[in-house]
Amino acid sequence: MKDFRKLLVWEKAHQLTLSIYQLTAAFPSEETYGLTSQMRRAASSIPSNIAEGCGREGDAELSRFCTIARGSASWNTRSSCPGI
After folding, report:
1. What is the CA radius of gyration of the chain?
2. Inside any domain, residue 83
3. Which of 7, 47, 65, 73 could lock onto 13 through a cystine, CB 3.0 to 4.6 A?
4. Could you tell me the pTM of the whole model?
5. Over 50: is that where the pLDDT of 53 sits?
6. Does residue 47 fall inside a structural domain?
7. 78 lies in which domain range?
């Protein structure tokens, strides 16, 4: 079992989550259950999946959870830059 708190990628993902929460606090109230909720869930999924992967046995499991985390990061990139 690896200590996820020592990973730079987890720290950066955690900071991204905090930034997304701060950013979406300024969104219109009608987006509370739409875009705001989805962006927050996707952002918090990134460090959560990294942490869960570190708690599993073996590098294959860590790799699988990092792939899931990357998908969540990709969702936030698409939602915040719809022209891409």
Report:
1. 14
2. yes
3. 47
4. 0.84
5. yes
6. yes
7. 43-84
Q: Domain tally for the chain?
A: 1
User: Hey, what amino acid is at 10?
Assistant: W
**Distances from the Cα of 39 to the Cαs of 53, 61, 78, 79, in angstroms?**
21, 25, 10, 8
In a domain, 4, yes or no: no
Residue 12 domain-assigned (yes or no): no
Does residue 82 register a pLDDT over 60?
no
pLDDT, mean of residues 68-80? 80
Q: Please give, one letter per residue, the 3-state secondary structure of the chain.
A: CCCHHHCHHHHHHHHHHHHHHHHHCCCCHHHCCCHHHHHHHHHHHHHHHHHHHHHCCCHHHHHHHHHHHHHHHHHHHHHHCCCC
Model confidence pLDDT, tens digit, residues 34-48 = 889 999 999 999 999
